Amino acid sequence: MRTPATPTTLTALPSLGPLFARGALRSPFKHPRPGVSFSGAGHRLVLPGLRVDPTRLAAYERVCGFPTGEDSLPLTYPHVLGFPMAMKVMSGPDFPLPLLGLVHTSIEITRRTSLASAGTYELSVHVQELAPHRRGTEAVVVTELRQDGETVWESTSRYLARHATEAAPAAGEPEPCPPPVLDEWRLAADVGRRYGAVSGDRNPIHLHPLTARLFGFPRAIAHGMWTVARCLAAHGVPQRARVRADFRAPVLLPGTVSFASDGARFALCGTGDPARIHVTGRVDPLPDPLPHTGPAHTP
Q: How far from chain centre, in Å, is Cα 187?
């Protein structure tokens, strides 16, 4: 049986700027292919003693539409905290997928309790595996937040590197039927720059039309995690919940989108006819934990 490697303990969150630059420079030399493996899979980066900066948190809440000044963290905020650690792994020389061109395809988040904004946490990130996908290879990245030794929040993100595969082309999947439209949002051209400022994710595809065109987009596109956060701010999430979101098509900036929800499912759609579906997801409350009754007593 393989013995898990000793986690690497960090003393501070890495700086995203140098990691983006390093990953971009290494990307041309990485050539993903079917069956590629990652020797660092399962190795955890751990940051103990994490405390949230209230100023940065409030800025994030404003950009994403969450109420400010709450005593608990928005469901999506731990992803922002863990993203630099994920980037540290995926920009490394032994990570086989090129950072440039990785596409965030889905995220599943589980929150087991309210997360106090003034709390102290242990944050950890690891790549669980590289999984085959009909369009290439996905890196499965797990982020966990612990408090007093208990996992209180965790997420699983999938990042796709496209390459030729031996899999047969999948049959065309019908677009899901979106829930009822509740609102229409006009998105400004600077949404990507404002979210990048509060999240640290300054990928050029989100910042300006010119830099986005270098990667094949006609205009800048919204961050996928901004679209999910904005939807959840409008939808509402129980304190104990599991959320799944799939990123289906980029949201061009500026633009107009419609928010749809039926109380469990949510979607972000275009306003054309037929409407293009950008994001789909659902929110499921977790059952309350069973009360601890202690060990059985035998007289």
A: 20
